[in-house]
UniProtKB/TrEMBL annotation:
Keyword annotations of the record: Oxidoreductase, Signal
InterPro entries assigned: Gfo/Idh/MocA-like_OxRdtase_N, Gfo/Idh/MocA_oxidrdct_glycsds, Gfo/Idh/MocA_OxRdtase_bact_C, NAD(P)-bd_dom_sf, TAT_signal, TAT_signal_bac_arc
Entries under Pfam families matching the protein: GFO_IDH_MocA, GFO_IDH_MocA_C2
EC number(s) from the headed UniProt entry: 1.1.1.18
Residue intervals of the Gfo/Idh/MocA-like oxidoreductase N-terminal domain: 81-164
Enzyme class: oxidoreductase
Domain Gfo/Idh/MocA-like oxidoreductase bacterial type C-terminal: 206-454
Organism: Rosistilla oblonga
Molecular functions (GO terms): inositol 2-dehydrogenase (NAD+) activity; nucleotide binding
Protein name, entry field: Inositol 2-dehydrogenase
Length: 457
């Protein structure tokens, strides 16, 4: 795919951002997005992958962008979301099963990707080579090698790339306040940080089932190995509902290493991210990963499950990560979901609902310096991840959730999964980004794409 696929519309879009220039970046964050300036300056977006979070990020973005197209391999999901989008923006977006038809279009400035994880890298790389900026849901990658490839292509193409770790912007300012507390020395020297990310339940045996007529199963699998569709009749309720509770598709893809990384890359991508940000470890990595306690739901041999009809990611775990400056990180499936920071002079806990502890209470008498939150964020704080993405599209600078910091923290999550799969401690070289003295473990840093679904570069 050629970088020459930049359209007149895109040139107008970028020329408009240059003209807005300095004025756009001294205004408050809420007023800096195109949608709040002029309808003629609204970028044109498309979303690829529409269930749950796919619709969520699209729905949050209508006030900032126009959606020209949507894509999904499930015709029911695609049809329903096209109608919802038409009602929202008073114009019906085009519908596609094959995302490549979106990348071929010359009127689309950026794509939002919310497919299952095993598709993220292929679509992201091809989109960048097609001249599109990219917003991709977390976790960004299935393997560490995929992260390195995305970094290479971002640098090569100059595309703006936002990772959908919305906890950096859309969970109030609790996490930013937590980082500011650490950086201001309010707990002294950090000695330990515990990330509580929850566990998962094992599945019963899930039999081979007939593929629902609305799903292109081969295309859904894409780069992953060719396997039978599996599902039990019981349906999932609540968030992610309307699909089988137990399957190897749709919502349950998170519980299979073939498509995702379980809780380690689901919630870990949120809380390990904030922990690394606070520790100043967003451009480095750990030296050692040790699985202290864990439970896998099926038998493993040489790091691979020997059973293929049940979920295979860890159900419970306690992992120790040796971080720079002698900080101990614990990633735990037990306890309250959130992050506990412990230092030589105090400790506090933060999650999406609260920030508590003596250092927090002390803020009443000794508040953080003015501008401390903005200093953490790197400028005026945006309350919408899409607005931050569009600001970055205007400035041609990388956004708050850039691929480099995301990949560095996600390496911890990927390595934790590898350590459990192989049942051993792993030593990590953060400079070379490889496992030290363990060829078998290093073989899990990449995976081979299925023939016919290789990345087009």
């Amino acid at each position: 795919m050629s970088l020459s696929r930049q359209t007149t519309s895109r040139r107008r879009f970028l020329q408009g951002t240059a003209a807005a220039g300095a004025a756009a970046f001294v205004a408050p964050a809420a007023n800096r997005a195109f949608a709040l300036q002029s309808p003629n300056e609204r970028p044109v977006f498309a979303t690829i992958g529409l269930r749950n979070q796919g619709w969520g990020i699209t729905n949050k973005s209508f006030k900032f962008a126009d959606f020209a197209a949507l894509a999904d391999v499930d015709s029911n999901v695609l049809g329903a979301n096209v109608e919802k989008a038409a009602a929202k923006q008073k114009k019906k977006p085009d519908a596609y099963k094959d995302y490549r038809e979106i990348l071929d279009r010359k009127d689309i400035d950026a794509v939002m990707i919310a497919t299952p994880d095993h598709w993220h890298t292929k679509i992201s790389v091809e989109a960048m080579y097609a001249g599109k900026d990219v917003y991709c849901e977390k976790p960004l990658t299935l393997t560490i090698a995929e992260g390195k490839l995305i970094e290479k292509v971002v640098k090569e193409t100059g595309r703006v790339f936002q990772v959908g770790t919305m906890q950096r912007t859309e969970s109030g300012q609790r996490f930013l306040q937590a980082i500011a507390l650490v950086k201001a020395g309010r707990i002294g020297t950090v000695k330990k940080v515990t990330c509580g990310i929850g566990g998962m339940v094992a599945s019963p045996v899930i039999p081979v089932a007939e593929v629902p007529k609305e799903i292109d199963w081969d295309f859904w699998l894409g780069p992953a190995p060719k396997v039978d569709y599996r599902a039990l009749p019981e349906m999932r309720q609540g968030y992610g509902g309307g699909v089988p509770l137990y399957s190897n598709c749709h919502y349950s893809f998170r519980n299979w290493h073939e498509y995702s990384g379980g809780k380690l890359t689901d919630w870990g991508a949120h809380h390990v991210d904030i922990a690394c940000w606070a520790l100043g470890a967003s451009d480095t990595g750990p030296s050692k990963i040790t699985p202290l306690e864990y439970s896998l739901p099926v038998e493993y041999k040489d790091g691979n499950p020997v059973v293929h009809d049940q979920y295979n990611t860890a159900t419970s775990f306690k992992i120790r990560v040796d971080m720079p400056n002698d900080v101990e990180m614990i990633i735990n499936s037990a306890g309250d979901n959130g992050i506990l920071f412990e230092g030589t002079e105090g400790r506090f806990f933060v999650n999406r609902g609260k920030i508590v502890g003596a250092p927090v209470e002390a803020l009443k008498e000794n508040p953080l310096p003015e501008g401390a939150i903005e200093e953490v964020y790197g400028g005026p704080v945006s309350e919408n991840h899409t607005a931050n993405f569009i600001d970055a599209m205007k400035s041609r600078k990388q956004p708050i959730s850039d691929v480099w910091s995301h990949n560095r923290m996600l390496e911890i999550c990927h390595l934790s999964n590898i350590a459990m799969r192989l049942d051993r401690e792993l030593k990590w070289d953060p400079a070379k980004r490889e496992i030290v003295g363990d060829d078998q473990a290093n073989s899990f840093l990449s995976r081979e794409d299925r023939k016919g679904y290789e990345i087009n570069m």
